[in-house]
Structures are given as C-alpha cells and as structure tokens.
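for the recovery benchmark. tokens below, seq after
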C-alpha cells in the first residue's frame, strides 16, 4: 500500500510519482475496473484507455465527483492531441449530453443533481482548462513510460493546473 509522504519536509523534497498518485486514486476507488476492459452498453472500453483516463484524473488532480468528472471530460476534449481513438470524442461529448439530458429531466447522477446550467458551466470550465495547456497530451500515451515521473514534472511539462485531489 502506497502512503503519501506525511512529513512536510519530505513532501516538499520527494514529490509523488504518477505511480504513487495512481495507487492513491485506486485506494480511494476500490471498485473501479483495473487491468481489464470494461463493457458499457454496446461499447467496449479497452483497459489501456481506462488507465489513461485514470491517469488524467491523477495528473489534473480532478476527483471522481460529478462536477470534477464533467470538468475532466471537457478537459480531455481539448487537451489531448486530435489524433486519438474515435470513441474518445464520443465519450466526452456523449457523457456531457447524457448528463445534460438527465438534468433536464430532473434526474440525479450517483445521488447528485446538477441543473442544466451547472452541467454546461462545468464542462466548459474543463474545455477552457484544456485549451490552456502548454503542450497537448498524446492520446496514445504509454503509461509505463511516465509512471516513474513526478506528478509535479508532468504538470509542469504540460502546463496543467493541479486541482489537488490525489496528492495526499
């Protein structure tokens, strides 16, 4: 089990690696699919794409709350390179439209209700953040090549503002 640094002196000199941040993320979300593909209706999402999504939660610092998930899918729409699997677009726009439709029907998602204006505002906040990255993120990122890097260095390289959810 990976524990975040407790001593503030250590925390400032030994930043978390992506691997450590991802372990904290999975510890906080033990029911999340790991190491296998996931079927969502007729769509099969490969494990490598799920892992990349989880990695982006950790690098951006977005939590798994509904408002942060909306921001993340907006962020991914604009921060990733445009050359990517077609279903990345479907996931971003499709999830946004589904949540928007549910909000118009007065339905909650996971026990949380956001009105249509909130859904749009949160998604657009993520889009704006994605447009502000200093370097677009490769949609085909190979996770094993960046796991040992510090979260701080990844954020600095891409110009990503940390929302703070996974740094311990």
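predicted aa per position
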């Amino acid at each position: 089990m990976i524990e975040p640094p407790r001593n503030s002196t250590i925390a400032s000199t030994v930043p978390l690696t992506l691997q450590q941040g991802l372990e904290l993320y999975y510890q906080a979300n033990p029911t999340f699919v790991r190491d296998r593909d996931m079927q969502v209706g007729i769509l099969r999402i490969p494990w490598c794409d799920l892992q990349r999504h989880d990695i982006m939660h950790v690098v951006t610092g977005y939590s798994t709350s509904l408002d942060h998930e909306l921001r993340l899918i907006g962020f991914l729409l604009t921060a990733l390179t445009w050359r990517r699997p077609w279903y990345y677009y479907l996931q971003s726009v499709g999830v946004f439209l589904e949540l928007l439709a549910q909000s118009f029907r007065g339905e909650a998602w996971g026990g949380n209700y956001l009105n249509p204006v909130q859904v749009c505002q949160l998604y657009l906040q993520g889009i704006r953040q994605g447009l502000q990255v200093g370097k677009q993120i490769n949609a085909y990122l190979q996770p094993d090549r960046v796991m040992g890097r510090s979260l701080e260095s990844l954020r600095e390289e891409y110009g990503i503002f940390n929302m703070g959810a996974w740094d311990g």
